[in-house]
Amino acid sequence: MRSFPGSRRRASPRSGSGDLDLTQLRRLLAFTRPYRVRLAVGIVAVGISSAFGLAFPLLIRDLFNTAFGGAAFGGTGGAAGLTRIALTLTGLFVLQAVFNYVRTYNLGLVGEALVADLRRTLFGHVIGLSVRFFEERKTGEITSRLTSDIGTVQNAVSQALAQFVNQLITLVGGIVVLLVLDLRLTLVMLAIVPAVVLAGAAFGRRLRRISTRFQDAVGDANANAEEAISGIRVVQSFTAEGLERERYGSAIDISYALALKRLRVRALFIPTVILAMFLGIGVVLFYGSRLVLSGALQGGDLIAFLLITVFVAGSIGTFTGLYAQLQEALGASKRIFELLDARSELEEPERPVRLATPRGEVRFDGVAFRYGGRESTLVLDGIDLEAPPGTVLALVGPSGAGKSTLVSLVPRFYDPSEGRILLDGVDLRDLPLAELRGHIGIVPQETQLFSGTVADNIRYGRPGADDDAVVRAARAAHADDFIRAFPDGYATLVGERGVKLSGGQRQRVAIARALLKDPRILILDEATSSLDSESEALVQEALQRLMVGRTTFVIAHRLSTVLGADRLLVLDGGRIVQRGTHRALLEQGGLYRELFERQFRGAVASADAATSPPA
């Protein structure tokens, strides 16, 4: 068996709510369940580290009281007491460093794993949504939610969770210690806390609203960039680089203005809280100093009280920052969950019918279809047709007649607005969606290749196919010769969207991909439109062999490609206006004959013009 090296690489609702959505927060934290052991270890380590942090001011209190003649550790004073305190402080710092490592590693791992799972879940959900979902949203908006929004959540989860537990223990434990040290000073310190909390809540709500709008604006900018980059050849051919720069620049200006607004709120928010807390510390220092002078409080106790007050003030200040960060994360997670909550309009059957080996009989029964709601125009109306197994059914008609829409209903990219479509007598809506599509091969008008190797792209419909099968499919599509002409052969990288191949080469690779899948139903939407005359003849020969025993829908504007079809359907304005063989339709006259004569008259005229001598 040969081996081919190389592998594939490759408008949203706005939120104006500023309330803390605990349901959404619980939903976000639910992603931590597989890692609850590490999460628990990390939280315990945070608790122990925080407790050691609170012990530090108490040891400093004993140090100062001992140094100035007080008692330490139950009455032991002097040099021995100082030595014991110093050794205890050293051990405390070492243990705190150890538990900080355990805390940082475990909670960091949980945060990284949560974000990876969130990305995997979001992409897995989005990729399974219906075609209509992607028609209504820009690609850049979706990728923005997969990248920048989840990045915002990642920062909150991997850092804010540890900080929250740490500061909570510091705050609660610090207040308890302060109450034990001196009730009067503690009451003075706590008098300013309610005002700080209320200010934090007000700032946080505003910050969340701005952050959500900022993420929406970044998504719009990404969507503009995605469109311009994916269509770079069109952009450059129309010299529209300036226009695209202006569009992207305008979107960035909007996001920049929102970023500045968010920055102003945060710049006002955090210093205001810190100012309030340090004003409170100043009041505590003034009042405590008076107590020391009156002999009602020892100097070491005042120093310990001030240190713990700084810790508590820092905790409150950190909490306000964490609240702001949490609001930003909730704004981003709201956009993420909007995608996760999006549901495909193509519902899976509750009691699916299995067709292990379908015969390939397709029937349309009174099918009508519209892209929008009930008020929108019907694109297809009153479609009745039957394609027996092995039949080649050709769809012809002017542009916009509904040909591509009709065949897109067969793999259930959409469901009919009215009527039903049957496969071997079973409504398509009663079949598992993946199983139905597994029996259908499509060669679209606009060939989509992925940025891997040629072999990867042929193998796309059957990932487990061996290399021999890949080569057989390529030969059947008359692609083997040009593939082997590449220096790397089947390991040649095709570039993003297959840009390194010509149009005809891309089309033949796409045909080989459909051949390898070996489907019961084929849909050829202008499958030979990008081929020159010689390649078209070769591929038509391959397709003729492939179509034997399979039900095939062929769409072609060039009527020469469908002359051998078992039956032709002529569509106009979403209705079937004629049906029959090529010869019968020519004898009937009407639209088909008009299209045929117009096309071949134009071809003959072009040939005459090419062979006429110059005047």
Structure write-up:
The protein is an alpha/beta fold. It folds into 2 domains: 28-341, ABC transporter type 1, transmembrane domain (ABC transporter transmembrane region fold), CATH 1.20.1560.10; 392-610, P-loop containing nucleotide triphosphate hydrolases (Rossmann fold), CATH 3.40.50.300. Helices cover 61% and strands 9% of the residues. It is built from 19 helices and 10 strands. The protein has helices at residues 22-29, 36-67, 78-126, 131-135, 139-181, 183-190, 193-230, 232-237, 241-293, 299-341, 403-408, 433-438, 454-458, 467-476, 480-485, 503-517, 533-547, 582-588, 590-611; strands at residues 362-369, 380-387, 392-396, 418-423, 426-427, 440-443, 521-525, 551-555, 567-572, 575-580. The strands form 2 sheets. A 6-stranded mixed β-sheet has the order 6-7-8-3-9-10. Strand 7 (521-525), helix 17 and strand 8 (551-555) form a beta-alpha-beta unit. Helix 5 (139-181) runs antiparallel to helix 6 (183-190) and helix 14 (467-476) crosses helix 16. The protein is elongated. The relative contact order is 0.09. Mean pLDDT is 78; it is low at 1-18, 70-76 and 603-615.
